[in-house]
Amino acid sequence: MAKFVYRLQNVLDVKYRLESLEKTAYAQAAARLAEEESKFQELLTRQNTYRAELKEASNGVLDIKHIQHLSDSMEVMKGLIQKQFLNVNIAQKNLEAARTRLNKAMQERKIYEKLKEKAFENFKTELADQEKKEIDELVSFTYNDANSDESD
């Protein structure tokens, strides 16, 4: 029996590898986004802590140096939070780009898989046609051979 050999198998293998690489890149981008979001939340928590300390320092015995220090810390936190917010947005855009590349790689792989399936179906059809032809030839040969024996 004939063996099915897909002539574009090398291309399909490359598409599998590319898809795997894109999955890895997507996972890395997702991890980076999670890390940036975590840092952002950490900064917000620190800012809230400074805000609470500033409010507490403003109620009681006033220590101007401490209040000034907390106020400066709040300003620094605002700058850090804005910077981290930009980092989160960049990480989100990178994740979306990785998702787009992954989707494209998956679509290309699926196209080549469908081509392989169609090629295999054509192979099975050709094989079945060839078997029918051989059976018809065998039956025809047997019938003609039987008829030639009777006429002798």
Automatic annotation (TrEMBL):
Sections of the chain in a coiled coil: 88-122
Q: What is its main location?
A: membrane
Single GO cellular component term: bacterial-type flagellum
Q: Which Pfam families match?
A: FliJ
Q: Which keywords describe this protein according to UniProt?
A: Bacterial flagellum biogenesis, Bacterial flagellum protein export, Cell membrane, Chemotaxis, Coiled coil, Membrane, Protein transport, Transport
One GO BP annotation is: bacterial-type flagellum-dependent cell motility
Q: Where in the cell is it found?
A: Cell membrane
Q: How does it sit in the membrane?
A: Peripheral membrane protein
- Write out the similarity annotation: Belongs to the FliJ family.
* Protein name from the UniProt record: Flagellar FliJ protein
Q: Which organism is it from?
A: Bacteroides pectinophilus CAG:437
